[in-house]
Amino acid sequence: MKKLKITNNSPIVLGFAIASFAALILDIVTGGRTNQLLFMTWHSPLTNPLTYLRFFTHVLGHSGWAHFIGNMSYILLLGPMLEEKHGSVKILEVIGITALVTGIVNYILFPSVALCGASGVVFAFILLVSFTNVREGELPVTVILIALIYIGQQVYEGVFLRDNVSNLSHILGGIVGAITGYKLNVRRA
């Protein structure tokens, strides 16, 4: 009988999940101060160097356990498959681009709203994985349905619900995932 060996099949995704967990623990221990300082983007002065860092690190912060578990469930489900298919560097790029785009757009369009969480990354992964079998000159019905369902839901909720969810971040993450998924899969076809 062969011994069971635990392996790290997805270093970027696992590292992201561990960093997010550490950020959550730090936030709990400091009574919310670390999220405000490092893991949440808000309309801080452009002369503050941390403003630029937070454009990237806000995806590591979460408002609590439920927020963290919801995001990490999707990231740990979809991320390893994507990292195995596209490589660690591409997945890190998707996370970084999604963080930067959502951070800057939130900073410009919603100056009174702080943003934290990996929901944009989740939506990027959802749309990226839906492009897994796309070939040049083809657009599967399933990709259209996923885009309509997920992005349509966010548009609906953004218009009709008033909650603390950044629907625009979800939509932007989905757009980043869709563009990346299309480019990565058409090149391989």
Question: How would you describe this structure in keywords?
Answer:
0% strand, 8 helices, 189 residues, mainly alpha, 69% helix, Rhomboid-like fold
Task: Note down, in words, how this protein is organized.
It is a single chain. The chain has helices spanning 11-29, 33-37, 49-57, 65-86, 88-109, 119-130, 141-160, 167-188. The model has no long low-confidence stretch (mean pLDDT 88). Helix 6 packs parallel to helix 8 and helix 7 (141-160) packs antiparallel against helix 8. Helices cover 69% and strands 0% of the residues. By secondary structure, it is mostly helical. The protein has eight helices and no strands. It is globular. It has a single domain, classed as Rhomboid-like fold (Up-down Bundle).
> What's the count of strands?
0
| Termini Cα gap | 40 Å
* Principal-axis shape: globular
CATH topology: Rhomboid-like fold
Percent of residues in beta strands: under 5%
The poorly predicted ranges are none
SS field, number of helical segments: 8
How much helix, percentage-wise, in residues?
Answer: 55-70%
